[in-house]
Amino acid sequence: MRGAGAGVSEVLAASAVAGRVDAFQRALLSWFWRERRELPWRGVGDPYATWVSEIMLQQTQVVTVVDYFQRWMARFPDVAALAAANEEEVLEQWSGLGYYRRARFLHRAAKVIVEEHGGELPSTLEGLRTLPGVGPYTAGAIASIAFGLPAPIVDGNVIRVFARLFAIEGDPRSTANQKSFWGLAEALVDPQNPGDFNEALMELGARVCTPRSPACLLCPVREFCAGFASGEPEALPEVARRSAVKPMRAVAVVVTRQGRRGKELLVGPRDAGGLLAGMLEFPTVEREGKRWPKLDEVASLLGMKVVAEEVGELTHVFSHRRLLTRIFAAEVGSEATFADERWRWVPERELSQAAISALTRKIYERSKQLETT
Questions:
Q1: Is 133 in contact with 90 (CB distance < 8 Å)?
Q2: Comparing C-alpha atoms, which of 134, 162, 120 is closest to residue 28?
Q3: Which residues does residue 328 pair with via DSSP β-bridges, in sequence order?
Q4: DSSP letter for each residue of 300-352
Q5: Where are the domains of the chain?
Q6: How confident is the model at residue 373 (pLDDT cuts 50, 70, 90)?
Q7: Staple partner for 306: which of 58, 126, 223, 330, CB 3.0–4.6 Å?
Q8: What is this structure's pTM?
Q9: pLDDT-derived band at 357, boundaries 50, 70, 90
Q10: Which range, of 90-99, 178-187, 331-340, averages the lowest pLDDT?
């Protein structure tokens, strides 16, 4: 194996791709054109659709994104429609997809595009990088797929493919190895078909060169692959040590009343700047560590004392935090009002369409399960 952070020219020269870049590109593209999945954002010729799909696909599987993408495009068919929406509408469409900063970045960037770019996405890497939430990968994907520019991309799938193709060892997140991956992506991208080539790399990593049990015998570029030749492709890329998951504790109260629209639930937006900022939730107090908040702390949020019964608890794992939540239920009279304007009543039948997170949905579903037991 080559040492971590070896120069791009050194890596290429020592590989089976050396002097055969054209053959490598042809083999990968031929496979992609034959085997690619039909996806609603492919081949539509719309930079906006490409941008939305790429943001949604960050840390989310294709099978999950398809329905969200179609609903999003039906509600916000172009940049102008997205820019004109309010944040709650945007979060409602994103609800359940997770990593909500992505939705906020889309919304903010849409406003920038309308105000500074005449409603059209910038067509250069430099211009795309000025948009909120658009980093090197997303800019490269949009530039190559939507505008036909020979721009490199590097995501988790590409890292895995390159680590195995070129036997790159060491922490894949290290500065030196990241430089190698980006250099290889730039050196290999097909200038005639950059968008298809980049999508082919990602498709290969997602469907063939998988983290476990890669389908090497089905791989169109296995003759170029050092990992395949070694007989141990799963040894690469090396697994980076993960940061410890921090514990958190929370108390949430599902407050209900019988209103004019039937059963209603009390919700309000989470504080800005934190996890799931702006998403609607039940009255909740969270704390880092293993010390439980008190029910009285939730009552202080509401400005009134509530009689609540504990109905269960659940665990929700974020990427870096493990949150254990105690769930309480409380019913108040139909005349109950709250001085703080953050709180409002939502009909139970409309909760699924509201801008709630997966965590809030789990809390609600758990409370409903316990109602019937």
A1: no
A2: 162
A3: 253, 310
A4: HHHTS----EEEEEEEEE-SSEEEEEEEEEEE--TT---SSTT-EEEEGGGGG
A5: 8-235, 246-371
A6: very low
A7: 330
A8: 0.76
A9: confident
A10: 331-340
H-assigned helices in the chain:
8-13, 21-35, 47-57, 62-75, 79-84, 87-94, 101-116, 125-129, 136-147, 156-165, 175-188, 194-207, 226-230, 295-302, 358-371
Mean pLDDT of 20-43: 97
Contact 248, 285 (CB under 8 A): no
Tens of pLDDT, residue by residue over 46-97, are 999 999 999 999 989 999 999 999 999 999 999 999 999 999 899 999 988 8
CA atoms of 128 and 122, how far apart (whole Å): 5
Task: State mean pLDDT over 118-136.
Answer: 96
Q: Are 137 and 96 in contact (CB under 8 A)?
A: no
Distance CA(16)–CA(12), nearest Å, equals 8
Q: Is 288 helix (H, G, I), strand (E, B) or coil?
A: strand
Pick the CATH number of 246-371 from 3.40.630.30, 3.90.79.10, 3.40.50.150, 1.10.760.10: 3.90.79.10
CATH number of the domain located at residue range(s) 8-235 in this protein = 1.10.340.30
* Least confidently predicted of 145-149, 169-173, 182-186: 169-173
288 among known catalytic residues: no
Q: Which of 51-60, 189-198, 313-322 has the lowest mean pLDDT?
A: 313-322
User: Cα-flanking dihedrals φ and ψ of residue 291, to 5°?
Assistant: -95, 125
Residue 32 tokens, joined: 């992609």
Catalytic residue among 38, 54, 331, 348: 54
For residue 38, give both structure tokens. Answer: 């039909």
Give 81's contacts (C-beta < 8 A, 6+ positions apart): 75
C-alpha 346/C-alpha 364 separation (Å) is 13
